[in-house]
Amino acid sequence: DQQVKQNSPSLSVQEGRISILNCDYTNSMFDYFLWYKKYPAEGPTFLISISSIKDKNEDGRFTVFLNKSAKHLSLHIVPSQPGDSAVYFCAALVDKLIFGTGTRLQVFP
Amino acid sequence: EAGVAQSPRYKIIEKRQSVAFWCNPISGHATLYWYQQILGQGPKLLIQFQNNGVVDDSQLPKDRFSAERLKGVDSTLKIQPAKLEDSAVYLCASSRSTTSGSWYEQYFGPGTRLTVT
Predict the structure, then answer these.
(1) Closest Cα in chain B to A92
(2) How many Cβ contacts (< 8 angstroms) between chains A and B?
(3) A100 CA to chain B: closest CA distance, Å?
(4) Do A100 and B107 touch (CB under 8 A)?
(5) For residue B65, what are the contacts with CB-CB under 8 A and spacing of at least 6?
(6) Exposed, middle or buried by CB within 10 Å (0-12, 13-18, 19+), for B16?
(7) How far apart are the C-alpha atoms of A27 and A37, rounded to whole Å?
(8) How many CA atoms lie within 13 A of B106 on its CB side?
(9) Which pLDDT tens digit goes with each residue over B2-27?
(10) Per-residue pLDDT for B102 more than 80?
(11) How many CB atoms lie within 10 A of CB A59?
């Protein structure tokens, strides 16, 4: 039973354009949602979070949107940079963090 | 602020052998987690400690996996005996006390890549 789903395994975006990574969830009891970025041979790095009582949180080039009625959240990266190329994990928290399977983002020049 | 430290970074063992991983969390972080990440999947929680007590070990295969966090600081995760399906990256993470702001943000170490042959 996959409670957090990232249906796009990969995404390719040109430098300077917007990257949109999507995540769907099934459990309406999740309290927080987090995005992590992971480079090869490194552990996941915390990127941005959003409380379930909010619908938007912004931090520099990164914005997370939460649509509770659709049980959907998205991460927007504007503008995208080559250094953003990594695997992005969506995670949701109730009593433990539940991770999605990740989306590999490639930003090309 | 020093990050989460883990060792070793890589380990190759034969099935039925035993192996141990070590983790030192960020200083002052009360909560420590061990995750298993199988290739192509997201990390899955194995065990969570609050100081030196176990909060959640519901997904830990207790017949072969064990973990301890003596003195509420560093922690070890052991597998004995290992199976082929234990091949994965084992991640340690830590977070602040639940009474702190942003308590839900977990910070991960680099992981230990285990290969069981």
Answers:
(1) B104
(2) 48
(3) 5
(4) no
(5) B46, B77, B78, B79
(6) exposed
(7) 23
(8) 30
(9) 899 999 999 999 999 999 999 999 99
(10) no
(11) 10
Among B41, B45, B109, whose Cβ lies nearest the Cβ of A97? B45
How far is the CA of B60 from the CAs of A102, B33, B54, in angstroms? 23, 12, 11
pLDDT at A69: 95
CB atoms within 10 A of CB B112: 22
Contact B44/A at CB under 8 A: yes
Contact call for B43 and A44, based on CB within 8 A: yes
DSSP structure class, residue B40: T
Q: Which two tokens stand for residue A38?
A: 């992971």
Residue A91: list chain B partners with CB under 8 A. 42
Most distant CA atoms of chain A, gap in Å:
41
What amino acid is encoded at A11 in this protein? L
CA–CA min distance A27, chain B (Å): 17
Which residues of chain A carry a pLDDT beneath 70? 1
